[in-house]
Amino acid sequence: MQVSSVNDAKIYNLSHGKSLPEVSNITRRIELIQDFEMPTVCTSIKVSRDGHFILAAGTYKPRVRCYDTYQLSLKFERCLDSDVVAFDILSDDYSKLVFLHSDRYVEFHSQHGHYYKTRIPTFGRAFSYHYPSCDLFFVGTSSEVFRLNLEQGRFLNSLQTEAVENNVCDINPVHHLIATGSSEGRIECWDPRVRNRVGTLDCALSIQALPSVTALKFNNSLSMAVGTGSGQVLLYDLRSSQPLLVKDHFYNLPIKSLHFHDQLDLVMSADSKIIKMWNKDSGKVFSSIEPPANINDVCIYPQSGLLFTANEDPKMNIFYIPALGPAPRWCSFLDNLTEELEESPESTVYDDYKFVTRKDLENLGLSHLIGSSLLRAYMHGFFMDIRLYHKVKSMVNPFAYEEYRKDKIRQKIEEARTQRVQIKKLPKVNKELALKLMEDGEDEAVLARRTKKGKAVPNILSDDRFKVMFENPDYQVDEQSEEFRLLNPIVSKVGLKNKKKLRLLAQQMNEDEDEPEGQASSEEESSDDDKSWVEEVREQRRLLRQEDWERRRQERKNVDRNTVLLENPQFYQLKAGEEFRSFNDVTHKQKLQKASLEDRLKLEENSETSNMANTAVGSKQLTFTLQKSEQQRKQQQAEREHHEERKQLRRSAGHLSSRRGRGWGGRRGGRGRH
């Protein structure tokens, strides 16, 4: 339940959305009527004349729902063929209903359900029921007002208006005058007894605009309220063509609903954004309601301070305003509830719960409660009872209050120290870099003050985005690394250049005349600086190569020193079918698996399977040579031997065939000679 106050009038939203965790819904949330909602959108809502039933039409799929107020639950639900434009209750209860559909059909329902369906010539927008004659008057996208007599069961002669289209209609409950509102901003009044027009009222003349009439409501025999498409409400006395009062909503949205509250002489006007309650004599605002979703229709429960809204939202809102009247008899407990809430101080809905993350639960030792009823998952953490949180916190850290007190004292001391003379304090991490940045910032600030061209560039030290670089030891600059030694000459020379430029600019600001000799000397110095930093980079490269060579030489010495030859070699006999492997093969592989990437790269460099070379400044190039496994070597050796054997077989076969050919030729020749 949400409580708001406008002009000292308390407004209780009894169907406020579930913004609380579900644990608190059990004890705090009020569900006045069970399942008081639609699947998607509610378009219109009404209360029966006996006050026992609330009927609402909505979508999707198109349907009507009836709620029993004495049972506080849904009584029945009926699905329809098309969307409902408007509906009305003809009887005291729900036994006679009329629905105007968006496909021009008019559907009648009795107590058991669907009764009859007929069709009107044009698309309808609104209708009203005339009880003395049992006539239904339909207005829509034509100039005619269609009459359907429910006693005779047939259409009667329609009323011909001067409008192009009619949006709304209403019947006065006292003298049964029929009024229709057109899209041109004109009101036409008809006497149903003679079926003649008795008067015309042009609302556009009163507000000096051409808005359409979107809402119309009679109060008594002489009062009438008209709502326009531009957000104005005009109060008329039927005896005058000038409005008594013009009330503007200032939202430029069409007025969708108008109601009168006779006990307090109030008018309740609603557009799609707000419901305003104001005095019909003075126009003074009594209160206002802004629901979370757009409004489609408003209905007031008779003789009470309860009202319902149909919204562009599944949930239909229920508002209770004690200043308008008491609660209905079927929900009289609302009066006692609101009195208790007014006596007790208001508190936010989350005061009784503490939001904790998974890390907080681990620190408190409450990780085992995840999934239990004591914790309720919400977003990236959990809600838990604030009493449980404080109890566990005091047990885990009994000296929390003392630490909190010391922190507050320390903060007070630091605030007092800020008023003293400030001394430059270097951070614990990257002191050299911080000192350099501070010096550069001072020079830029001095130059900015002298040139008067704007503010200096903000310093990195005062930027919260880079404060971790001077607090976390992981960001410490390693001045002995290869990248730093190669980049430092360039950076330092650039810094010197900037400082020289700043000095020259300062001198130019102080001096009245420029000296050309000074400019030439600066150019010579800049060229010398360019040569000097190149030489320094080359020197650093030479030193790095020399250190690398010394490191490799030392590693080879260590390997030779650790090599131990076996004095008494042992011989082992291999079984048939086994392959010989090194005894240290398994241990060697285990060591390689445990070694870091740097150690493995060093071993590969020694075995000439990888080569590391410096390419650009601060970058390296690795070249790997794939080694063949023992099995691949054996397979290649077997293939070569097989190839050689086949060559030898071909040679021997060719030699044998040549010898046989020569033998057979000699025998044939001998036989011929015989």
TrEMBL record:
It is found in: Nucleus, Nucleolus. Signal peptide: none annotated. Residues 1-344 form the Nucleolar protein 10-like N-terminal domain. SUPFAM superfamilies: WD40 repeat-like. Residues 648-662 have a biased composition (Basic residues). Residues 608-626 have a biased composition (Polar residues). Residues 509-535, 603-674 are annotated as: Disordered. The keyword Nucleus applies. One of its GO terms (cellular component) is small-subunit processome. It comes from the Eukaryota. Belongs to the WD repeat NOL10/ENP2 family. This is Nucleolar protein 10. It comes from Cynoglossus semilaevis (Tongue sole).
